[in-house]
Amino acid sequence: MDAGSSQTQVHVVLNRFGAPEVLEVARGPVPRPGPGQVRGRVEASSVQYTDTLIRKGVHPDLKQNPPVVPGYDFVGPRGVKLSGQP
Predict the structure, then answer these.
(1) Which residues lie closer than 8 Å to 47 by C-beta, 6 or more apart?
(2) b/e for 7-39, b at 16 or more Cβ within 10 A?
(3) Is the dihedral of CA 68, 73, 50, 11 positive or negative?
(4) What average pLDDT does the chain have?
(5) Is residue 70 part of a domain?
(6) Contact yes or no for 68/32 (Cβ under 8 A)
(7) How far apart, in whole angstroms, are the C-alpha atoms of residue 5 and residue 43?
(8) How far, in whole angstroms, is CA 85 from its chain's centroid?
(9) How many domains is the chain built from?
(10) Domain span at residue 65?
(11) Using CB atoms within 10 A as the burial measure, which of 18, 52, 55, 56 is most buried?
(12) What was the pLDDT predicted at 81?
């Protein structure tokens, strides 16, 4: 995966908190990892109780306002550090 590529990803986003109807499927650029981060590929994810609390805007660890991309549980191959990343 080239760090400078213009790849896109499909993800669920919350543009506002609320009922399940606020979940939207969106397409956007694959984010570049920051220092000390890795990028991997998500092959499967689940929806769990934590995600419902985030959707409602009441999860105690929620530190941001919408838009929010929920997801605490996912599976995929381990990412690798990109060149130039510490």
Answers:
(1) none
(2) eeeebbebeeeeeeeeeeeeeeeeeeeeeeeee
(3) positive
(4) 82
(5) yes
(6) no
(7) 20
(8) 20
(9) 1
(10) 8-30+38-75
(11) 55
(12) 54
Q: Report if residue 85 sits inside a domain.
A: no
1 pLDDT higher than 90? no
Q: Would you say residue 62 lies in a domain?
A: yes
| pLDDT digit string, tens, across residues 7-36 | 888 889 999 999 999 999 999 998 888 887
SS (H, E, C) the chain: CCCCCCCEEEEEEECCCCCHHHEEEEEEECCCCCCCCCECCCCEECCCHHHHHHHHCCCCCCCCCCCECCCCCEECCCCECCCCCC
